[in-house]
Amino acid sequence: MSEAARLMDAAIRLSLRGLGRTAPNPNVGCLVVRNGRIVARGWTQPGGRPHAEMMALEAAGAAARGAELYVSLEPCAHVSPRGPACADLIVASGVSAVHIAMRDPDPRTDGQGAARLGSAGVAVTLGTGEAAARQAMAGFLSRIALGRPRITLKLAMSIDGRVSMPGGESQWITGPEARAHAHLQRALADVIVIGRGTLEADDPSLDVRLPGLEDRSPRPAVLSATLDAIPASAKFADRDPLLLASVDDLCGLAVNDVLVEGGAATASTLLAADLIDRMLVYRAPVVIGDGAPGAGRIGLERLADAHGRWRLAETRALGNDRLEVYARTR
Ligand SMILES: NC(=O)c1ccc[n+]([C@@H]2O[C@H](COP(=O)([O-])OP(=O)(O)OC[C@H]3O[C@@H](n4cnc5c(N)ncnc54)[C@H](OP(=O)(O)O)[C@@H]3O)[C@@H](O)[C@H]2O)c1
User: Fold this and answer.
1) Which of 30, 127, 178, 307 is the most buried (most CB within 10 A)?
2) Origin, by domain of life (predicted)?
3) Is 314 a catalytic residue?
4) Mutate which of 164, 192, 248, 249 to test ligand 1's pocket (most atoms within 8 Å of Cβ)?
5) How many other β-carbons are positioned within 10 Å of the β-carbon of residue 24?
6) Could you give the CA distance from residue 23 to residue 118 in angstroms, rounded to a whole number?
7) For the whole prediction, is pTM greater than 0.90?
């Protein structure tokens, strides 16, 4: 790995700190580097401001003059009521070179941020670490490309694909390591969705119960066309839960990442509408037999139509269980 690739990789890793908290803005990471040493770091703050560049430049102060900047997304070119354009801030800081992992597809920037830097005499490189940056900002990029958040479906299932016992009991199918990993995924999402059936069967807390990340619980949401309000008795009632009357309401959320935690009816409706971008399957070494499947009818007529839609993106052991991550091929 070249020095530039290594530094960009560090900036992209930094960007992950904002995941699940920066919407509607992207989660960006930024480093100020002087003579090969990192002198300041920034990442998009909760609510989307300050931007990563502003945080890093403020931390760098006078050390920014003549330094190089590594940033995971093209600096913005638009002034908003919430803050200045990062491209202008960078020019004013006296930075001599800016390395950008990827162009910002947001039409308010889309090449104009880099152009403004270039015309002010700042050296600009584009594309180092682009694939990793795309992955780190997949939710934001989904909003720009598809007009909706990235939607991830989580399923905890048996070897034979069952998510609950015939009577509905489902806690717990997987072990502590898998459940901790699933909690981390919650921390990285803006909103967590369940169907009314899961609310009534399990009354889940939908929070993050990992040491140090307790304040990272995503906003809970319930999908239901019949509920008038989320019952005040729900365990998450004090976290300003959303009631989504339809899939359109879900797609219209102004957030980057939505995590769906079931149940089967909700999974089916989203799979049938081809709205799932990623599946996290936590598979436990148990056979349940008669019990509820992970999804019901999704409108498939022929087996051939089921093929070619999903790619195994990652798999690994988590204690006695196995995580399989599937990505929708689009
Ligand atoms: N192992 C696991 O990973 C896991 C995870 C979660 C749940 N579970 C289990 O799954 C079971 C519950 O699953 P379930 O299939 O019965 O229920 P569910 O999917 O949680 O909820 C179904 C309800 O969601 C609403 N809904 C679904 N699609 C909708 C749409 N397109 N528009 C509007 N509302 C929609 C409807 O509510 P209205 O009828 O009010 O409109 C529907 O009745 C429980 O036994 C639970 O323990 C297992």
Assistant:
1) 30
2) Bacteria
3) no
4) 164
5) 14
6) 28
7) yes
